[in-house]
Amino acid sequence: MWARYEVASFHLKTQEIYDALPVTAIAYTDTLNASGTMSCTVPLSAPAATPDRLYPGGTGLAVLRDGEPIWGGILWTLNADLEAGTLTLNASGFHSHLKGKHFVAGEIARDVDQNAMVRNWVSRSNANSGIATDVSQIKDSGRKRTRVWTRYECKNLGDAIEELAEVIDGFNFRYAPYWIERRKRMGNRLLVSPRSGTPGARLLEHRVNCNVTAVSYDSTALATNAYAIGADNGAGEKLMGSARNAELADRIPARDSVTTYTDIKETETLLSKAQAAIDAGREPVAIPTLTLYPGMSPAGFTVGDAVTVRVDSGYVAVLDDFIITERKVDIETTGRESVSLSLANRKLFTNGDS
What we know:
Elements: E1 5-11, E2 17-21, E3 25-31, E4 37-43, E5 59-65, E6 68-81, E7 86-93, H1 95-98, E8 107-113, H2 114-127, E9 144-149, H3 157-165, E10 172-181, E11 185-193, E12 203-205, E13 210-218, E14 225-232, E15 238-244, H4 246-249, E16 256-260, H5 267-280, E17 285-292, E18 306-313, E19 316-331, E20 337-345, H6 346-351
Parallel strand pairs: 12-18, 14-16
Antiparallel strand pairs: 1-2, 1-5, 3-4, 3-19, 4-7, 5-6, 6-7, 8-9, 10-11, 13-17, 14-15, 17-20, 18-19, 19-20
C-alpha cells in the first residue's frame, strides 16, 4: 500500500493552515544548500482555489506524507488551463524568501561564529516582516568568519548564506517544514549539518535496493593552480588568494582555476576559496544518479545525508561514500512514489567547495 499524500496551503506570515488541497499530481525536489521546487495540480473550480487563499508570494505550501510534512515552500506562480480545467501550482523552498531580503544598510560581521552569523541574519529577516524561520537548532560551530558588505552592494541574504556555507569547514543547510500545531499551523526550520554529511550506515547497491540509472565522470573542476580574485584594495588592485596542487601537477598538464568574488575584501577568505577550489579539483569524480526500489521511503534519505553506493558493471566500478545533494519525488495518480537521488562525492565536501 502506497503512502497517502496531501498538499496543505497556509498563510506565510501567520503560519495558519488554509486548506488541504484536492491535488491530482505532485512532484517535489529537495536541493541541498538551495531552495528546491514543488509543483502540483488542483481542479480549477475547487473551493480552495481562490485568489485570496492561493496568493503568489503570500501562500505557503507543504507536502504531507501520511500526515507528516516532508516538503515545504512558497507559492510563486500558477498556471491555469481552462480547457483542461486545472490549476498548476509552482513553489520554491523557503530559502527563496531570503533571495528577496537584502542588507539594504550594508553588513559588518567580524570574527563571528559562522553559525551564529546565520542565526543572526535569519532572525533579523524574521523581525523584518519575514516568515518566522526557526533557527533554534543551529548551534555555534567554533569557526569564525568575517563578512563585510556596503549598502551599495545590497547583498541578498540567500546568497550570503550560500557563500558562507561553501568555504572550507563551512556547512550544509536545508529547510524542514514542521507542525507548530497539528493541522492548524505550519512552521519552517533552518537546519545546518557538517559538510562531510550527516552520518548514516546506509548502503545503496545497484540492483539490490536501487537502480543506478547513470554514472557520469567529470574532470572539469580539475585544477593544479587556483586563484580567487576579490574586491579592489583601494589602490586600484584586486585582492587575490592562490593555492596549488603539486601532486596533480605531476600527473596532468598545468590547469588553472580562476574565480572572482567582487564582494570579498579579506585575503584570508580568498585563500580559503582558492584552497576549496583546489580540493574540489583534486581528482575526476564519479557522479551517480539512482532511483530507489519501490517501498523505500523518501523520508529515510534526506539531502545532506551520507550514503555508500556500490556498482559493479563493466567500466563502472564504484564503491564510495556520497552526499545526497538532491531528492526528487514524483507521486503517480495511484499514490505510487518514484524517488530519485542525485549524489556528489563525499570527498568534495570533506575537502572543500562542492
